[in-house]
């Protein structure tokens, strides 16, 4: 089995779903299940949605399962692209670069499971909440650099491109300043 696994028929167990819409990107997120071990989301991306930039996580495993439409995933080496269709699942282990987008002219709906859960739910709730509150740019990125640093830290995310050492140093520094200035309190309402 390779580091990227393609599966079918992921079991879906939902509790009380809660849908949140991002007014800037048009994406919709439904939180299906949240435990200490994992969090399960359903995402709906409009046609042409850019999804997420190329990134990886140090400790998180993400699983993507398409329910309808098609989801373009880039993973591993540059140019390694797979279009997931309904019923197809891609598991992305820690350290593997990946991004997703909806390159089609139709909506795509997919399930994402994040293990371990950590603060990933708070990260996503905060991104959507800041968008609802008008505190993001036209791409959906928080305009407050200190809030952005805290969120990147919560998501255990490394963006591909900038030198990793400098990126981690900068995020750690900005997140420390943010905690000192109690910027975390401005994100508490999104929990």
**Helix content estimate:** 10-25%
CA radius of gyration is: 16 Å
Quaternary structure type: single chain
Q: Structural class, judged by helices and strands? A: alpha+beta
Principal-axis shape equals globular
Explained architecture:
The chain has 191 residues and is an alpha+beta fold. The chain is 23% helix and 33% strand. It has four helices and twelve strands; from the N terminus they run βββββββββββααβαα. It has a seven-stranded antiparallel β-sheet with strand order 1-9-6-11-4-3-2, covered by helices on one side. Strands 8-7-10-5-12 form a five-stranded antiparallel β-sheet. A hairpin with a 6-residue loop joins strand 2 and strand 3. Helix 2 packs across helix 3. It is globular, with a radius of gyration of 16 Å. Mean pLDDT is 90; it is low at 1-14. Pfam families: Cupin_2. This is Cupin domain-containing protein. Residues 43-113 form the Cupin type-2 domain.
Please tag this protein with its features:
QDO-like; alpha+beta; disordered N terminus; RmlC_Cupin_sf; Cupin domain-containing protein; 12 strands; 7-stranded antiparallel sheet; Cupin_2; 23% helix; 191 residues
């Amino acid at each position: 089995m390779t580091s990227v696994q393609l599966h079918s028929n992921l079991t879906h167990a939902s509790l009380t779903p809660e849908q949140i819409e991002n007014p800037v990107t048009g994406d919709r997120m439904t939180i299906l299940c949240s435990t200490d071990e994992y969090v399960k989301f359903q995402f709906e991306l409009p046609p042409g949605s850019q999804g997420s930039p190329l990134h990886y996580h140090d400790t998180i495993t993400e699983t993507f399962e398409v329910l309808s439409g098609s989801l373009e995933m880039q993973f591993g080496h540059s140019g390694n692209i797979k279009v997931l269709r309904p019923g197809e699942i891609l598991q992305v282990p820690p350290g593997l670069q990946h991004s997703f987008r909806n390159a089609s002219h139709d909506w795509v709906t997919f399930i994402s499971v994040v293990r371990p859960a950590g603060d990933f739910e708070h990260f996503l709730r905060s991104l959507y909440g800041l968008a609802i509150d008008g505190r993001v740019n036209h791409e959906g990125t928080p305009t407050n650099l200190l809030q952005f640093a805290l969120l990147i830290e919560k998501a255990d995310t490394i963006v591909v491109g900038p030198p990793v050492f400098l990126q981690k140093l900068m995020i750690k520094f900005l997140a420390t300043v943010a905690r000192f200035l109690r910027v975390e309190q401005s994100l508490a309402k999104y929990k």
